[in-house]
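Hey,
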Amino acid sequence: MRRSYQSRKLERHSRKPAELLLVPMIDIFTVLVTFLLMTAVFSRTVILQLNLPAQNTTFKEPPPGLQLEVMVRKDLLQVADRNSGPLATIPNTAKGYDYDALTEYLKRVKAKFPEKTDASVLLESETPYDTVVQVMDHVRVFEVSQGMNTVQAELFPDISLGDAPAAGPPAPAAGAPP
């Protein structure tokens, strides 16, 4: 038997409100978070650890051996030993700094001092950031072709940054290593 419109209306208003069920909502959010984490693209960020000098450094006698420095000047790159002075000068090419010549010279230095892992990159004021990154990359590693693959080999991965001293007399051209 059909009820009248009035009785159905009264019945609807007299009902208790339904309870809010949170379990299905939590399930949906769990699935959503899992899906987002699985499909997210995480970019790989490379961070280099730099050894910056402490504020109150006292002078210590350096141990005997090579103290490698790469100085970035406006018109050239200069490889030097802190103890003995400039070792090689790599003038700029028409395209800018000659990073390939720097890498070749540093490979010869690494062959002579294979246990050496640290180097200082000394910069003149107002050196562009891209130049700093390029020099640091070429001092850290070099690329070697192995068959169809290209791998990176280590040169001097422990890099310190500093200010370049005032320009002095020209050094010998990039020839034989120290």
